[in-house]
Write the structure tokens for this entry.
Amino acid sequence: MIKKMEKKKINSTGENIDFYSDAIGNAAEFSFEEFLKWFNANTNITEVVDSGYKDFFGEILKGKLYDATRKNSKEMTALEIGCGGGRLMNASCKYFGKVMGFDIHSNLALAEKFLKSRGNENFELNKINDDRFSVENNSVDFIYSYIVFQHVLKMNCFESYAKEISRVLKDRGLAIIYFGRPRFFSLIISDNIFLDTATFILDRFIFEGIFLNLFRNGYQENGQVKVNTVNLVTTMRKAEAVFKKNGLKILEKGFTRRNKGFGTQYYLILSK
């Protein structure tokens, strides 16, 4: 049985990384399959693969990104921030010529095993060190990250990644970055579309627009966590300001959906 990670107080980025890395390591020690399922609460490896294709082609390659890359995708290099067990990278490798994956955990050999088992060879995996990618300046065509930045604890860490994205992205390169949507009224997502819409509006204009933007500098850190709790929520205005400060242009902004309702993440499509 996988060791249960108890809820605890996290005070620093280093502690947060260790907490998540330990949880991933516990799953890896139990079995290869449990390691793969851990990152998206899938039930089996087939579901891991299927959900990876669904999220990559549905959430990463949104309309204008697919249109901008489809003709020469095999000539492009992509970078995934928070590659986990390779769920999204498996789909990404089928689309791009080369894919680089970065993550904080120490079990990337298992992610490599998974990716090779799916017939992929056009990838490399790296451990993130000090919020930096071991990649040359202006060398990446496409960067993406999904269900990752909501688990980053500190805003200064978010800002460091924004700086790195700008550093490694080529001129006219593209990125899509998801991050935690501020939620207070809609912490419990409802299947009732009217209730879900009402709580989304309350969060957007009261919790996010007034409380966080005016009194919390556009974000809220949550250090009282258990594994896969949302650690950081960021207002759209704050995230836009962070990326613009680092020389990136905002091409599109939006949010994830849950059926007909609203999901837990915002996204920004960026260009350099």
User: Anything to note?
Assistant: Residues 8-271 form a domain with the Rossmann fold fold (CATH 3.40.50.150). DSSP finds nine helices and eleven strands in the chain. The chain has one domain: 8-271.
